[in-house]
Amino acid sequence: MDRYLSGVQLARLLAIDPDARPYYRALAETVRSLILDGRLPVRVRVPAERHLAEALGVSRTTVTAAYDRLREQGYLESRQGAGSWTALPDAGSLGTENPWIVTEDDGLLPLHCAAPLATRALPEAVAAASEHYPRYALGMGYDTVGLAPLRQAVAARYTARGLATRPEQILVTAGAQHALHLLTTALLSPGDPMLLESPTYPHAIDAARLRGARIVPVGIPDDGWHLDLLTSAMRQSAARLAYVIPDFQNPTGHLMDDATRAGLVSAARKYDTTLIVDETWSELDIDEMPRIAPLAAFDTDGRVISVGSASKLWWGGLRIGWIRTSAAMVRRLAVLRSTVDIASALFEQLVVARLFEDIEETRAERRRTLGASRAALVAALAEHMPDWSFTVPSGGGSLWVRLPELSGSALADAAACHGVRLAPGTWFGVDGTLEGRIRLPFTQPPQVVTEAVGRIAEARLRGAYGARPALPLTPTL
Questions:
Q1: Better pLDDT: 28 or 282
Q2: Is the four-CA dihedral 113, 114, 115, 117 of positive or negative sign?
Q3: Which of 179, 279, 187, 280 is nearest to 239 (CA)?
Q4: Which of 200, 222, 178 is nearest to 429 (CA)?
Q5: Cis before 386 (ω within 30)
Q6: Distance between CA atoms of residues 293 and 258, nearest Å
Q7: pLDDT tens by residue, 231-246
Q8: What is the DSSP letter of 347?
Q9: For 426-455, b where at least 16 C-beta lie within 10 A, e where not — what string?
Q10: Alpha carbon distance 438, 402 (integer Å)
Q11: Which secondary-structure segment (H or E) carries 260?
Q12: Of 109, 143, 257, 396, which is the most buried if we count CB atoms within 10 A?
């Protein structure tokens, strides 16, 4: 590596408020900005930590922390004996901002995650499961396809929603993400094309990449799906799989109508594409509306595979999901699954089976709580950020916000300094797209949502280096 900067040279490029707190974050963010706008080229060796610390007049520990953050974000690479040099992260990499590697007690309000608090029905269901648990302990405890009472409950719910289903068509999984991993492993080979909505659930992008798929993104305009865009993408790419979220799409909140559902299934049949349908949000309608049949109700040849989860309706701590498909595919997936984790936790399956008995009461509870939080979020945004644009969804758990001028990633960095963790639009786009968006969930209680928007407004005004609150607001039911 021929090019390098001395400590004095790099310090001259850095314009950091000496009172910025935390200083290491300010230092890392400034270096990151220099790289992104080209003032600090890629593959240039940066000064040793000790030399930059001397030039800036700060401790070596501060520079070390900043370099560590840059390495974790992908903007710095290092090799022992060769030093460190500037870099760009892999497209779509979340680095230290990945929501699944942060702790709940990091002092930030969790607006990065659209996960409701536990339903009030949970304690009673846990007590009921505890009562019945001992009799199941007489067996081996392994049931690869899932506990019979839970499979019956899931099948009965599909039937009640207008899709006749037998328990043999249900495979219980350790959440919807586990289900998606199983399906991509079973149905995709490396290099196969896989159609994804854009924006979409970030872990669907992860699953496709992990399998080595060739991702085919299809944009979702502000008015929802355009069937011609979906069908032409299937035809032109010959996609083996397509992953769609028709019910309160994450993150846009759109709800696919019956005509589009029927047309999508017809196109999948014509172009020999298997549809993986994520129904994680399907039970969380807030406004009164006619029920729309599951997408698989339009299927006639088994090419629609539905994925559901207990996480949004009841609680994310219940790591229980399910796949609805043909009985033959259930057996195939069970064999594949047995090489990884054998079976889902029995106790959690008993809890979810009990929760299904009072599902309408829980849906009504969620309608009240999510409705109140949605109203609080919309009101707070109207007060503090009237120039932000979004469509209020009729259900689901989030607003998909278009920013007038700001970068979503920059706003997320600034908000973190003011005590709020945000999800920038790039998390939901393929290859780092959707920078001008953020997702704002309304799954936290109204007082948390309102407080968070006030802090975001302050971050927007003051930038990334404001004082972080000493104590987080405690969420309550």
A1: 282
A2: positive
A3: 187
A4: 200
A5: no
A6: 7
A7: 999 999 999 999 999 9
A8: H
A9: bbbbbebbbbbbbbbbbbbbbebbbbbbeb
A10: 7
A11: helix 258-270
A12: 396
Q: Of all residues in the chain, what percent are helix, strand and coil, respectively (each to 5)? A: 45, 15, 40
Spell out the residues 6+ positions from residue 299 whose beta carbon is closer than 8 angstroms to its own.
265
Q: How far is CA 280 from CA 179, 303, 346, in A?
A: 11, 19, 21
Question: Tokens standing for 371?
Answer: 């409705």
Q: Specify the length of the chain in residues.
A: 477
Whether 244 contacts 220, CB under 8 Å: no
Tokens of 318: 């219940």
**Nearest alpha carbon to residue 213 among 185, 235, 234:** 185
Q: Which token pair is 73?
A: 């974000």
Q: In 10 A of CB 142, how many CB atoms?
A: 10
Two tokens, residue 406: 């700001």
- Give the separation between CA 296 and CA 326, rounded to whole angstroms: 11
| pLDDT digit string, tens, across residues 237-273 | 999 999 999 999 999 999 999 999 999 999 999 999 9
Chain-centre distance for alpha carbon 226: 23
Side-chain-facing half-sphere of 141: CA atoms under 13 Å = 9
Dihedral sign from CA coordinates of 396, 226, 191, 330: positive
Report which residue type is found at 329: M
The letter for the amino acid at 55 is: A
Could you give the CA distance from residue 146 to residue 158 in angstroms, rounded to a whole number?
Answer: 17
The share of the chain scoring above pLDDT 90, in percent, equals 73
> Which residues fall within 8 angstroms of residue 407, CB to CB, at 6 or more apart?
424, 435, 436
Q: What tokens does 256 get?
A: 């696919």
pTM score? 0.80
Question: 3-class SS at 192?
Answer: coil
Which is nearest to 225 in space by CA: 203, 192, 193, 200?
Answer: 200
Beta partners for 110?
421
| CB distance 231 to 272 below 8 Å | no
